[in-house]
Each structure stands twice: as structure tokens, then as C-alpha cells.
Give the backbone structure.
Amino acid sequence: MEDIKKDIMITIKDSHVIDDKKESYEITTHGKFYGEKDNYTIEYDEQYDELKGCHTVLKITGGSCVSLVRTGAYNSELVIEKNKRHNCQYNTPYGAFLMGIFASKVKSDIIEGKGVLDLKYTIDFYGGIASENEMKITIS
């Protein structure tokens, strides 16, 4: 049986620290949800800034691993998995680069397409920490 896609409202709160400077933003958009408890998918179209026009798919597996696949001008696949470091390629209109992602927190509290996905992770380039990130995705 195929999962039924459910229309959802998504609020993404993101903050990151780069060179001791903290920046934050919040966006709200519409999207789709399918799956159950710790194994689900969230899809949405980016609406803001340079990512506008990209399609983003977040696939959560086992409640502790998030695969972010973005298509469009920023084709990328990032893996954010608790207590593991992954090398990921990030493509931009200006070129591609390899970055490491290590998650200290991946907490999924999603039930029947509602709840919060909470992430805390670092991004590094060539072994040096580039940013410390926190992201909270609320779906309703």
C-alpha cells in the first residue's frame, strides 16, 4: 500500500554560528508529508532568497537519520545522522564543494504528520569547523 501524501504547514527555524557571529531565520511554507512515526518524508518547494525554485525532500529513517535532497540550482544531498560524520557534496550555481556534517542531536517527535524535528550539527571544511547549526522543523 502506498503512503498517502498529507498537506502540511512547515515552519523552519534555523540558526548558525560562524566566526562567533550568530545568525537566525525563520520561514513558513506549505508542503507534503507521508510515512509514519520514525520513518517519514517531508517535501516542499523553497520560496525564499537564492533557494527559490528548488525542491527539497527530507527523508527521516529510524528517527535518527535525515537525508536532505535538494534539486534545482542547489542540487545537493546532505546526510544528518546522530553521532556520525558524513561527507556531503553541496552544489551551487558557482560550483560544488565537499563538506562534513556531524550531528550531535537528531530528535524526531512526529506523530500522524504533526510535531517537531529538532537537529543540532556542525559543518566542517577540510577538517575545520565552519559553523555550528541548530534547526527546528515544526509541521502541522
Remarks:
- The mean pLDDT is 91.
- The chain is about 0% helix and 75% strand.
- The chain has one domain: 6-139.
